[in-house]
Amino acid sequence: MKPDNCIMTYTMNSGVKGSVVYTSKQISEWIESYRVGSRYVTTVNRDYFGLNPELVADFKIHNYFSEQRIQLETIPPENLKNDLQVDSTKAETILQIECKCGESYIIRSAYKKLKWSCKKCNSIVFLDRKKGLVDTEEGKAWYMTNRYFVDRNTWAR
Q1: Is the Cβ–Cβ distance between 64 and 1 less than 8 Å?
Q2: How many helices (H) and strands (E) would you count in the chain?
């Protein structure tokens, strides 16, 4: 958009909204026409455009310097990818799952869960907060099991 052009957004009495690009001179002519109450006809690019001010409920003019014209800078794709990878690793929780069926594995989750299901037998395993974090090859992990009774009263802490 050229600095001398403005976007006029208008609302008709019927509720229909529209917008048109005017030059500064056309904006001055439109405001005078709106004040007097006479119909306004002008050319926009190669088209004729007419607007009856009696049917216009309100209008707003956005010039080159208004907040709606501010251009947003884009983030280069490689930086965005690296930032997302760093943020996603921070939010992950490592869980050590040990089931009574004999299955033992480590998973990563975006959330710290109180119960999970075994991927082999689909039995529910519970978070053992008394045992707390355990050492694994992937780092510290929350221990979840159904091999013994897990006191659920410690969940309230």
Answers
A1: yes
A2: 2, 11
